[in-house]
Amino acid sequence: MILAGGVGYEVLLPSVVSASMTAGPGEEAGLYIYFHQTEKQPKPVLIGFNSLEEREFFERFISVEAIGPIKAVSALCIPIGEIAAAIENKDSGALRKLKGIGARTADKIIATLRGKMAVFAGEHGGEPAGPAPVEENFHLLVLDVLVNQLGHKAAEAKELINQAIKRNPAISSPEELFDEVYRGETG
């Protein structure tokens, strides 16, 4: 339970997140929240993460058919780097060790996400299907946020990104790209 502004919110935490939390009951905690609500599930679900990277991994993970937010919260019982490496290395045995993940679901996870998780694998290895330039990765991340979280149309978001890069070709991070995109919109 998180108390914010005098209102209590129930926030689900994957076990890998709760195990790494340093704040105890009554202490301040910082979390990156994923909000989920659908027509089939009108009651909002809040899921907390220690970093934006964990939250982004989660968002990709629930894009797999048969994995919803609640199942994903249960499944994330080991660090995301290890899960990402298992996906990139097509190690369905490692994925079957996740709570609630059977052989068919593990195969679906690999089929859906292989080649998209190398950025999360980090020190745990993982062979990307094809090396994508770092520049392209953060362009795609910004595009995804503009379309899926901020409501821009895909073509419009691509144009905003292209214009931002033309104005400032030295952009080297998603944050710099967002700044330049919105600087152009207000300018």
From TrEMBL:
Transmembrane segments: none annotated. The keyword Ligase does not apply. Keywords: ATP-binding, Cytoplasm, DNA damage, DNA recombination, DNA repair, DNA-binding, Helicase, Hydrolase, Nucleotide-binding. The keyword ATP-binding applies. InterPro entries: NA-bd_OB-fold, RuvA, RuvA_2-like. Residues 51-128 are annotated as: Domain II. Has three domains with a flexible linker between the domains II and III and assumes an 'L' shape. Domain III is highly mobile and contacts RuvB. The RuvA-RuvB-RuvC complex processes Holliday junction (HJ) DNA during genetic recombination and DNA repair, while the RuvA-RuvB complex plays an important role in the rescue of blocked DNA replication forks via replication fork reversal (RFR). RuvA specifically binds to HJ cruciform DNA, conferring on it an open structure. The RuvB hexamer acts as an ATP-dependent pump, pulling dsDNA into and through the RuvAB complex. HJ branch migration allows RuvC to scan DNA until it finds its consensus sequence, where it cleaves and resolves the cruciform DNA. This is Holliday junction branch migration complex subunit RuvA. It comes from Desulfatibacillum alkenivorans DSM 16219. The lineage of its organism: Bacteria, Pseudomonadati, Thermodesulfobacteriota, Desulfobacteria, Desulfobacterales.
